[in-house]
Amino acid sequence: MTHHTPSAAAPTWVPESCTLPTVEQPLRVREFDDLFTGSLRTIERPGPTTARLTLATAEPAQVRDLVDREVGCCSFFTFTLTPEPDGLSLGIDVPATRVPVLDALVGRAATLAGLPR
Questions:
Q1: CATH number at residue 68
Q2: pLDDT at site 29
Q3: Domain containing 37: what range?
Q4: Number of domains comprising the chain
Q5: Domain annotation covers residue 3
Q6: Which of 73, 89, 109, 113 has its CA at 20 to 30 Å from residue 43's CA atom?
Q7: pTM of the full predicted structure?
Q8: Tens-digit pLDDT profile for the chain (117 aa)?
């Protein structure tokens, strides 16, 4: 998977197996982009198939709605939301065959939030 500069026209982390209609994919990517741009503070990669994102100002109900809808079209994702004193922790787990998708998602998130990759 190739990484590009993030834009609504180039959803680099959307896998080919995604069942979300193609026309709706840029809208979903934009929802994640808005989340990452507005509240992403840290990214940890405890292992190749796992990422932990700290979201400072995210509303848990909105994040839960977004990740639930994402699992509806990309069922290989497992998202875990954990309240933190200063925000919310978003755990993302994927099977080993989907590591390139996770890498692309985390890379895009880091770029949008101005964090190191």
A1: 3.30.1360
A2: 85
A3: 22-113
A4: 1
A5: no
A6: 73
A7: 0.82
A8: 333 344 444 445 666 666 676 677 778 889 999 999 989 999 999 999 999 999 997 688 999 999 999 998 889 999 999 998 888 999 999 999 999 999 999 999 999 999 987
SS3 track for 31-79: HHHHHHHHHEEEEEEEECCEEEEEECCCCHHHHHHHHHHHHHHCCCCEE
Is position 17 within any domain?
A: no
Bridge partner residues of 96 (DSSP):
none
CA distances from 60 to 13, 46, 74, 102, 114 (A): 23, 23, 20, 21, 22
Q: Please check whether residue 5 lies inside any domain of the structure.
A: no
- As a whole number of angstroms, the longest Cα–Cα distance in the chain is 38
DSSP secondary structure code for residue 83 in this structure: E
